[in-house]
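thread from #wetlab-drylab

HS: before we spend reagent money on co-crystallization trials with magnesium ion, can we at least see a predicted complex? here's what I'd submit
DV: go for it
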Amino acid sequence: MTVLPPEAEWRHRPGMDGLLKALDVTDGKARFVGGAVRDGLLGLPVNDVDIATTIVPHDVLDRLNAAGIKAVPTGIDHGTITAVLADGPVEITTLRQDVSTDGRRATIAYTENWRDDAARRDFTINALYADPLTGEISDYFGGIADLDARRLRFIGDASARIAEDHLRILRYFRFLARYGDNELDSCAYDACVAAANSLMALSRERIADELLKLLVVAVPVHALTLMVEGGILQPVLPEVDMAGVVRVEALIRREAQAGLTGAALRRLAALLPHDPTLADNVGARLKLSNKARKRLIVALEPAPEAETPRALAYRVGLEGAIDRLLLAQDQSLSALDLLEGWTPPVLPIGGGALIARGLPAGPDVAKALQAVQRRWVAEDFPDAERVGAIADQIVSKFQRARQ
Ligand code: ATP
Ligand code: MG
């Protein structure tokens, strides 16, 4: 019998016992499911915890309220209530089965049958349930054997499961990148390739969300290669080619050498051709937030010549500078050392100080201030005393020019 390691940190989070009690675990009404069970069995860290329950959503809500647990009906229409515990949210979903599907959304019905709930999940390794009290695993589709063999397998026929929900194409490659480093299931792969065009029917937000999750996997290179070879991204991101995958591979090497964790948007920047206009276009197409779009553009902007790492960080921000230095394969990584523990400072002088030095108020003040700033950046951000001296010189220069 396989059991979940009892010592797993997430099983002992504050509030978890109370939550399980409210869901009547002693009576077998709730089980852990999904990523927490899968990663728990592998001894990997777990962030999000999912619980499956036979209790219907409104009853879950009432029980949590009665137990004084903060509950948010995040997806009550499809059966999900989120319990907010101190260490993170726990999603509680009533056992469901799909009644009808159209590739984008499903009409569902609640059930009390665990196997039916398992059958509507995507991959065998994602359909493992653990009894919260004993840790005992329920495995209806051979998920444990697949997890041991690092084999990613759809539950049922791959084409049929992709037709029900096209997002599973991208999920296939994401989970392949994370868990499937052995024998590729060519039927599943062929099914993904054949259905690639159906990704067009999905909302761009869902595509972007999955793609970014895929990119941030430790080593997504093999999965990305398979995607490019199979034309999976062609319908949504035709600009991605093998050269992009090679750039992602180089970036991952540099992230590791620099001891930095991978960032999804930085990796997306590597995947795209070096063109900020196109990056903005992709950002808009994927409906990324303005902040994310800006990060992509900054990462891919051509660098002005001869800019020090700190000058770059001052101009585009620390995050943008780190992205750029990691993406520029010809740059030595030692440039990053200059940014370590450094925060871009604020120019320690304002227009008022220039006026106090005798510069008449007016448009010259802004221009002179810019000149001071340029010199301050070029001199690698000296202290206020030196900035005072720079200001004296610049003000004199402006005064001479006016005479
Ligand atoms: P992660 O570590 O990325 O959170 P996860 O397995 O928990 O991995 P989620 O996207 O959080 O993945 O989904 C939770 C569970 O819900 C999955 O394990 C799977 O059983 C089921 N699931 C999610 N999305 C789908 C889908 N599109 N089709 C079928 N089942 C799905
Ligand atoms: Mg999850």
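DV: The chain has three domains: 1-148, 157-302, 351-402.
HS: ok that's useful, forwarding to the group
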